[in-house]
Amino acid sequence: MSGPIPVTLLTGFLGAGKTTLLNALLKQPAMANTAVLINEFGEIGLDHLLVERLDGDTVLLNAGCLCCTIRGDLLTALDGIWDRVLAGQVVARVVVETTGLADPAPILHTLMADPRMAQRFVLDGVVTLVDAATGMATLDSQEEALRQAAVADRIVLSKVDLAPPDAVAALTDRLLMLNPTAPILPAIAGEVPAAALLDAGAYDTTSKLPDVAAWIGAAAPHGHHHHHHHDRNRHDPRIQALCLEFEKPLPWTGLASWLEMLAMTRGTSVLRMKGLLDLVGESRPVVIHGVQHLFHPPTRLPAWPEGTPRRSRLVFILRDLDPQVVRDGLAAFLQAAEREAALQGE
User: Fold this and answer.
1) 223-345 in CATH: which number?
2) Taking the model in full, what pTM does it have?
3) For the packed helices 74-86 and 105-113, what is the interaxial angle rounded to 10 degrees?
4) What is the mean pLDDT of the chain?
């Protein structure tokens, strides 16, 4: 068994088409040996895929996938999958499908905060489905839908064929402002190639260097994220994205103290944080990510990916927190760390 099993979180508002997408994904060869965790079978039309019920909670799909209902607890369901792995069953990845009303944060916390889970499973990415026809109205009226879009690593637009092109364009613009780091992919007849949704994390699950640039959204036009305030205030004044870049290597002590303080004092306002860091005294890139007040332990990548410039990038999705407060706070901590380093060096 090599390394932790990647977990993809599939979320999206009620009626966005998660079941259609999941059905289409599970038929693709890339999804072989996937364990699928679903909240309730009752609301899911996977029946034609089910062939054999193994016990009260688990069924085997004809594509060689396991399906579990998360009746009780995500931890219990993941423990069950791990028991199967230990018993010799091949599980290449896990997909967790949440109910439409779910806030993704608690599920992300479960994966990041439980030490046993962190050794066995690793968050690969959050895929959020948005209905192109009703998405704008849903974002206007439902706080959870905004949050689901804001924390996504990939956003899939469903029912694009049912919505006028100008409505799709306006929705796309709004989603880009909410979350400039997530690629937005149209689902054609409910389908998206699995490869576009998998391996969305900054973790090496196949011994190849991950596409960190895509994960952190570094491919976005340089510096353009900071100029959308007028439009954003019109739509979603509470949620803003902040992207920071640093040319010089950063001191880990100053950065770590500041992240700790941010998590303690303003954790609920940090919906998602991702960082690719060039640290003082460290030749390899370090990846960090956080959800609200929880931060995943820093991970060293084997090397700087080709074509990724050696500089630190931090991306924050903030709710009810002025980006300038984050900028100023970080600058103060980094200056203090530099002063301390200079004093020690004298």
Assistant:
1) 3.30.1220.10
2) 0.77
3) 50
4) 78
